[in-house]
Amino acid sequence: MANPSARMLRLLSLLQTHRYWPGPELAERLGVSERTLRRDIDRLRELGYPVSASRGVAGGYQLRSGAAMPPLLLDDDEAVAIAIGLRTAATTALAGIEETAVQALTKVIQVMPPRLRRRVDALQSHTVPALPGAAGPTVEAGVLTTIAQACRDGERLRFGYTRRDGAVASRLVEPHRLVSLGRRWYLVAWDLERHDWRTFRVDRLTGPATTGARFRHRELPAGDPAAFVRSQVAAVPTRYQVEVRVAAPAATVERVVGQWGTVEPDGDGSSVLRMSVDYLEWPALVLGSVGADFQVVQPPELRDHLRAVGELFLRASDGAA
Amino acid sequence: MANPSARMLRLLSLLQTHRYWPGPELAERLGVSERTLRRDIDRLRELGYPVSASRGVAGGYQLRSGAAMPPLLLDDDEAVAIAIGLRTAATTALAGIEETAVQALTKVIQVMPPRLRRRVDALQSHTVPALPGAAGPTVEAGVLTTIAQACRDGERLRFGYTRRDGAVASRLVEPHRLVSLGRRWYLVAWDLERHDWRTFRVDRLTGPATTGARFRHRELPAGDPAAFVRSQVAAVPTRYQVEVRVAAPAATVERVVGQWGTVEPDGDGSSVLRMSVDYLEWPALVLGSVGADFQVVQPPELRDHLRAVGELFLRASDGAA
DNA sequence: TTGCTTCGGCCAGTTTCTGACCGCAATCGA
DNA sequence: TCGATTGCGGTCAGAAACTGGCCGAAGCAA
Lengths: 321, 321
What we know:
The structure is a homodimer.
Chain A: H1 4-16, H2 23-30, H3 34-46, E1 51-54, E2 60-63, H4 76-91, H5 98-111, H6 114-125, H7 141-153, E3 155-162, E4 168-181, E5 184-191, E6 196-201, E7 205-214, H8 225-233, E8 240-246, H9 250-257, E9 262-265, E10 271-277, H10 281-290, E11 294-298, H11 300-319
Antiparallel strand pairs in A: 1-2, 3-4, 3-7, 4-5, 5-6, 8-10, 8-11, 9-10
Chain B binds a DNA duplex through α3.
């Protein structure tokens, strides 16, 4: 191991697999003397990576957590796991970190050897679409990362876009930002053919590809891209505002519904559940899981849906009795 | 930027944010001459990182994907996103990468500054338990990483364990391996008090903490830990083998059920769905989402459950009509 | 106490690193 | 076709670093 640069990286990598490393072994693996190893350790410390050492019979070196993220040195499997994790985090709107997840995913995918990328795709392909049914149109992670990369690097983007009426048209844009709103992804971009700012729903967008041409980011007049998307989308809100009175304590309901809705106690051991959804299957799932009696306050469509499912279930359970 | 080691890391980091970097700017950021920058780029290439460069008026450097994973240099937000992604990947049994996900998560958490770890915890705490209801007991990610780290580093572990009968006892073990089986996590460990190999269900395990004492891994007589767990658990199989005939094409059913069960076409546009579950809520969710008529072949308990839910739904939809 | 392990100063020889200067080649736009 | 821009790599000399070997000190556990 000639260069110290490469050696330091390798040392960092060894330390990240963590188990206490005895000095002599590290030195041997790196192909240097123990004295030099000590100096390397020192160098790491000077760079801010806290390497702790313990003396005595079972001593050794160990990388602890410090003030900044050290460079992560991953093996193939770990890299694949991270990519998969980020893909799900980015596409399931988990906790408000979707945009960062896409950003990180772009970075990982970018530098990932093609063979690993193929493994990620293969694993993802036979996986669950996050939640059964009711999830609405899904976004392919590959599409997201392509767009994110084009945004970041300022590369023009061409893609097919399905309009409301179902017609597909080709678009050429200067991508600006990806915005995650609710359970949907939007692309804010300067449309080169219409000479105006537009928002595109990513799930309606197919085959995005960079043209190779690079551009300098224009300033979005609206300022905040998220606000821009909200203003554009405000005209088309979620379809149903669901409100249900459930004969179960708020805590019980909350455990099931998680963040997909809000739950308020309603006295007398019951609670009020509110959700804002596009698909009625979703509140039905939740209510079925809670298993307590309830009353639908609104919308009436939910009542119809519940009746349909209820009859379906009764038919099934009676029919073959 | 004195050391070349540190500079190379920084250069890699800059290149990972990707957008084409013009040479002079990179040189300036690194505080070196352009000649030295070129040499650094060369060094990176010699280390196997493929840095592409383009000449001409809009030229610059760019890190492409190569044969091996380069060290990932993440900013705070990205690190948090990765941790969150891995936590969900590890605890939702997505695609057979759970064990690797925990391994990677351990590595990330290990070197993560405490302030970021707190952010991860905060974000995770107000997040959804992956799937509503029916998910059974969940495992805290922090518990998993503590155990994984103890396994990897060979540190003794003490924890509280809830037995079948509900009694809690303290255990002291030499942790060997974490195994993910179905939707559950198991710890294979040498029980220091019983002097024998045991498997522990991680969801029944509380407050794991390393004692600080380290040990040398014993050899598991059974050989493969996963096989060992399977043999131990085989006595307690999943409770219900569900089989349902659905009046919908296999493809439709499969889209909903994903990998949580198997679907076979059954001629005539219908299909047979098989699932192996502990909780009947789960097939009910799936069947409700499919929305097609179906017949329950087995088990009879599923019929009862469906009848109960069906009546519940009908009560709700009639009652307030 | 004894044995094991990390720690860090010192030294001298070697190697690497750096910036400056040079001409060259590729690319793009006019 | 021409010119501007940008990356490429050779050479040189001085400065800086890196390295291995040696040593005694100090912390830790049995």
